[in-house]
Amino acid sequence: xxxxxxxxxxxxxxxxxxxxxxxWCACGLSKKQPFCDGTHKDTExxxxxxxxxxxxxxxxxxxxxxxKAPFCDGTHKEx
Length: 79
What we know:
Blueprint: E1 12-16, E2 22-24, E3 48-50, E4 56-60
Antiparallel strand pairs: 1-4, 2-3
């Protein structure tokens, strides 16, 4: 699978709620960044699904190059 469009060179800080399912945009084309809006339908991409165990702030990858997607691993600093 190829890498998605680099929507942002910085991560997205998002407050998430325990037990809720989230869909991170893997293609980078969503108008609801960093979350999926279905734009990937005609591509090879599928959103990354995740939930968290407690309410917290997470940092979601905006560059689409993280090795820990959907979470930022600092790869954007090397671009």
